[in-house]
Amino acid sequence: MDAESGTPARIGVDLGGTKISATLLDAEGRELARYRADTPRAYEATLAALAQAVGALEGQAGMVGATVGIGLPGIVDGAAGTVRAVNLPWLEGRPFAEDAARAFGRPVRIANDANTFVLSEAVDGAAAGASVVFGIILGTGVGGGIVVDRRILPGANALAGEWGHTPLPWRRPEDGPPEPCGCGRSGCVETLLSGSGLARLHARRTGEAVEPPEIAERGAAGDAAALGTLRHHADALARALAAVINLLDPDAIVVGGGLSGLPGLYESVPALWGRWALSPAPRTRFVRARHGADSGVRGAAWLWPPSS
Length: 308
Ligand SMILES: [Zn+2]
Hints:
Layout: E1 10-15, E2 19-25, E3 31-38, H1 43-61, E4 67-72, E5 75-77, E6 82-84, H2 96-104, E7 108-112, H3 113-124, E8 132-138, E9 142-148, E10 151-152, H4 189-193, H5 195-206, H6 212-220, H7 224-248, E11 252-256, H8 265-272, E12 285-288, H9 295-301
Parallel strand pairs: 1-4, 4-7, 8-11, 11-12
Antiparallel strand pairs: 1-2, 2-3, 5-6, 8-9, 9-10
Helix pairs in contact: 1-2, 3-9, 5-7, 6-7, 7-8
């Protein structure tokens, strides 16, 4: 407990394939301690490393009994917290939440890291105050998650918000033929909106191979070809999000990931999505993530919500 306020402090852990990052937040979300380590590549060693992170953070902050939440790049299923994670194969099929609870001597909440990103932004980030928040990560892949009243909506199959693997709607000939996707299907939102999708779009439009950061830089400098590609990408994003607005009608859509800083994104997408949504001028806020790289640890900490 936090001795002064009597409310629990929260530990959030971002468990990646190579790094463990962790934070300890006080009841108001201020960071009191921080910890980083390499992720061991074995199950028992990972549990031990996480227990060590919890102990180190509580030692730094001079307190005990903090709640613990963990975000990881995988699908977390059922009460035992069984994990399916390509980047953490040694967790595969293990009752990870149960075993972590035993290792830490307290209950542990575990969630997919796209969901913890959305939670972080919904609690005290760019989407603070919004009731229904849809969060998207535009980067190497395209991920997403849904938070309602500061709680993650996991879904019956732990799949809610997996918008990157829905079909790109209202396709136009200029989008090109549906491309194969990493999920084994083709024509998914991810194939056009991810970093490689943006580069492929630019190559189709101009015949030139340019990496996404260079496309963004040229666009910001006013290069007409890059601006054309960015407009096309924004149009596809607007179509894909109009479908989300028709289905979920979120109060806010928050964007993170490597492509979240594309020039003009936050002006062009809301100007376009009314053509496809059933409302001609959706009131949905469209905002860039505030917490950046910290959203993983912060969102994991908020798995124990402010009201609990
Ligand atoms: Zn897919």
